[in-house]
């Protein structure tokens, strides 16, 4: 038992380091910290990704904030929430200048979908924007999009990875500040979701919400 515990401890340390690096779009094996290639089994990666999302706290204030949505926000909430509950998929665009309550709306949507036991993912085009949401991450990190981008760019997520299982398990994907991303990146996400979900519908039939100022 002592030997097993001694073995697990460095593995947990390596896992923690790798988690941090992966959130930045990197991998522990790039830095040669150990003499072997560090990998997770598919089950370990699946469990880690799913459990991390399931453990995101749901603030009571975000649930109660539904009572403070204005008419347009409430209509948008109802439309997107119903699509998530019915799992019908679709692409939606939330348009509005800064300061009009888009983030407020996103938080209400996330809280209510997560409160039903479903996985709701949110990414943003910048690290600053993504840090404003529980479970938020940059689009480049969440979808493993190469930083250099360019025509023909592809998301670096394999079909059998934990990230792929997480995306397939999600009921909604929200992308804040989507207009800051090049169109090739949006197309890369479309192709990724079609491949992962084995569905040729736009975005693989997933429910995707893009937000930004379209003016």
From TrEMBL:
Its EC number is 5.6.2.3. GO terms for molecular function: 5'-3' DNA helicase activity; ATP binding; hydrolase activity. Pfam families: PIF1. Gene3D superfamilies: P-loop containing nucleotide triphosphate hydrolases. Keywords: ATP-binding, DNA damage, DNA recombination, DNA repair, Helicase, Hydrolase, Nucleotide-binding. The keyword Magnesium does not apply. Its cofactor is Mg(2+). One of its GO terms (biological process) is telomere maintenance. It catalyses: ATP + H2O = ADP + phosphate + H(+). It comes from the Eukaryota. The keyword Glycoprotein does not apply. It is an enzyme of class 5 (isomerase). InterPro entries: DNA_helicase_pif1-like_DEAD, P-loop_NTPase. Residues 69-215 form the DNA helicase Pif1-like DEAD-box helicase domain. Belongs to the helicase family. This is ATP-dependent DNA helicase. It comes from Lithospermum erythrorhizon. The lineage of its organism: Eukaryota, Viridiplantae, Streptophyta, Embryophyta, Tracheophyta.
């Amino acid at each position: 038992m002592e030997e097993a515990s001694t073995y697990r401890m460095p593995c947990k340390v390596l896992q923690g380091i790798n988690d941090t690096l992966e959130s930045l779009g990197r991998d522990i094996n790039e830095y040669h910290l150990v003499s072997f290639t560090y990998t997770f089994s598919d089950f370990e990666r699946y469990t880690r990704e799913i459990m991390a999302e399931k453990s995101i706290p749901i603030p009571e204030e975000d649930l109660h904030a539904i009572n403070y949505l204005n008419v347009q926000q409430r209509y948008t909430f109802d439309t997107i929430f119903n699509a998530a509950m019915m799992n019908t998929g679709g692409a939606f665009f939330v348009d509005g200048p800064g300061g009009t309550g888009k983030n407020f709306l996103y938080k209400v949507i996330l809280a209510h979908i997560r409160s039903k036991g479903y996985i709701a993912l949110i990414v943003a085009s910048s690290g600053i924007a993504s840090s404003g949401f529980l479970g938020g991450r940059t689009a480049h990190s969440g979808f493993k999009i190469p930083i250099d981008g360019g025509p023909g760019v592809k998301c670096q997520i394999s079909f059998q990875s934990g990230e792929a299982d997480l995306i397939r398990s999600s009921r909604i994907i929200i992308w804040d500040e989507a207009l800051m991303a090049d169109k090739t990146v949006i197309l890369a996400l479309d192709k990724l979701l079609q491949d992962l979900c084995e569905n040729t519908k736009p975005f693989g039939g997933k429910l995707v919400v893009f937000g930004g100022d379209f003016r």
